[in-house]
Amino acid sequence: MAKNKTVESRRPLIAGNWKMNNTISESMRLVNNLTGKVKAAKDRDIVVCAPATALAVVTTALKGKNIQVGAQNIHWEKSGAYTGEISAPMLTELGVKYAIVGHSERRQYFGETCATVNARARAALFAGITPIICVGESLEKREKGSYKLVITGQVKRAMADIKKSDAAKCVIAYEPVWAIGTGKTATFEQAEEVCAHIRGVLTKLYDAKTADAVRILYGGSVKPETIDGLMVKPNVDGALVGGAALKSDDFARIVNFVTPEA
Could you give the CA distance from residue 240 to residue 15 in angstroms, rounded to a whole number? Predict the structure, then answer.
């Protein structure tokens, strides 16, 4: 199954979320092992989202390479009494280009709400950083069949007060909560169904042209053996990778996905 012309206009994006893993030395080993394995991947964007302590060395190590750097969080204020947070000016000075916003672990463990997700996304856009906005349903909502309502609400609230031109710059990552770190993976059809639904929500919020510009990723136990099947789906534009991003061989195989020729 080949992607159509409209889908091909969206440049694929593979982002690795290292979460709370890798010291500075471990981060350097990982990027040094990774760069040579993905240097031929010129027709797609590659991002590694390192922990805050390693952002400086990772951005330096990857300067001039075909891998960009993302943060795992971003605050909505430029500075202030927000202990433990990291601001957009801090990230832009380092050369960080992406920031994960609203990951389910942030929502579950740190009180992230749809309102703060929206505030963080808008701060990123204002600073020229691309937000990777995470949405996803719990197992309970999936089994009850109300997952589309959950996703619709999360997308609408995340995009509140974001104008059309900025919306087109956003990345949305569909991560079913029941598939994150569990070893379970949504089927290719389930991933496509929800990613297509997200695009439909964006079409209603903005218009078809804007919705078509937004890259929608799938995340949730993405593996080397599943990436090719995901990437042939017309509304899946890439992946947000967790555990497999910590192994250079696995992440490189995901980055170097192959799809049938058109």
Answer: 5
Q: Look at residue 220 in the predicted model and tell me its pLDDT.
A: 86
Predicted confidence (pLDDT) per residue in 63-107, tens digit = 999 999 999 999 999 999 999 999 999 999 999 999 999 999 999
Range of the structural domain that residue 170 is part of: 5-255
Within a domain: 44: yes
User: Of 243, 236, 216, whose CA–CA distance to 257 is shortest?
Assistant: 236
Q: Which two tokens stand for residue 180?
A: 């994150």
Determine, yes or no, domain membership for 261: no
| 134 SS3 class | strand
pLDDT at 51: 98
| Active site positions, annotated | 103, 175
- Rounded CA gap, 164 and 176, in Å? 26
Question: For position 6, what pLDDT does the model report?
Answer: 45
Q: Residue 203 domain-assigned? A: yes
Unique residue bearing structure tokens 């080397």: 224
Side chain identity at residue 183, one-letter code: G
Give the Cα separation of 153 and 18 in Å (integer). 27
As for how many domains the chain has, the answer is 1
**Could you tell me the two tokens for 104?**
């389910």
pTM confidence score: 0.95
| Residue 14 φ/ψ, nearest 5 degrees | -115, 120
